[in-house]
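We modelled each protein-ligand pair independently. The example shown here corresponds to the NAP entry; the chain sequence is given first, followed by the ligand as SMILES.
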Amino acid sequence: MEKSKIVLITGCSSGIGKELLSIFNRSPYKVVGTTLPESFETLSKDPMASSDRIWIRRLNVVDYEKASRIVRETEEKWGAIDILINNAGISYRSVVEDMGVEDEQTQIQVNYLGPMHLIRECIPSMRERRSGRIINISSVGGMMAMPTMASYSASKFALEGASESLWYELKPWNIHVTLVRPGFINSLAFRKVFYSKKRQESQGASPYDPHYENMTQFVEKLMRKSPCTSESVARVIFKVAQARKPRLRVPGTIDARVFYFIRRLLPRLLYHKLLYHFLPGIRQWGK
Ligand SMILES: NC(=O)c1ccc[n+]([C@@H]2O[C@H](COP(=O)([O-])OP(=O)(O)OC[C@H]3O[C@@H](n4cnc5c(N)ncnc54)[C@H](OP(=O)(O)O)[C@@H]3O)[C@@H](O)[C@H]2O)c1
């Protein structure tokens, strides 16, 4: 009988990660699902967690030592990791001027440095076995940047750049690297956005208030109206995990596909002018 493949998924307490856990649980995989320590109790009570093919571990992805330990312990318990899915992520809603150094570090550490560390931990055994998959959850924000999302986009652009390099580096060992790019998802993730210290202190008295108000309403409306859900994105990721030759970039939602073509086909100057023109409430910005 063929050995069950071993999958490591980060950020499994909610959204896409939780749906992934559920989909993989219905298939012959062994899954290490990690969650922030504060969400561990809740996720452990989920019926999925009692499956002997699911192992829930506490992990803040910026705790690099713990991340290494989880990879080693998985190897001892079940064997080497076949598929790494870097899903955990956070999103700051902040204009550049309001971000502090610590805010920038938090954004980049969770969305870029943490995933890169896990990748480095998984590569050696994948290389030795000449087989493996690395799936990084990027975003439409990783191909186009919008106001109040500079740091989030920077983190996803970084993930995109590194994944593109990795794709070339690891292909000779039959290790597939894929970026799945969701766009707007009908989920509650917008409630979890982070605000910088400066933004929290300046509530209601910042020259950027129209930027925040208009962008927040705009993003929340698009998310509520999106036909795509965390589950539909998880299904796309699952397909990538099973594909014989997955592509480097895969749209996670329909709008991601549309944005990709807009970005590719429109000349840059026209693209920026059009996007600026259509920003919500743009006439009030800067007043
Ligand atoms: N939702 C969207 O519209 C959207 C669009 C494009 C891309 N994405 C990307 O999709 C991925 C999943 O997002 P989602 O929509 O499923 O959001 P979500 O529901 O907020 O899930 C994010 C997961 O990451 C975990 N997490 C946050 N910080 C972490 C840390 N430092 N270490 C470990 N785990 C951490 C969260 O744990 P807690 O629940 O305990 O906080 C949660 O389980 C992210 O990479 C996100 O950037 C989402």
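The domain at 5-284 is CATH 3.40.50.720 (Rossmann fold).
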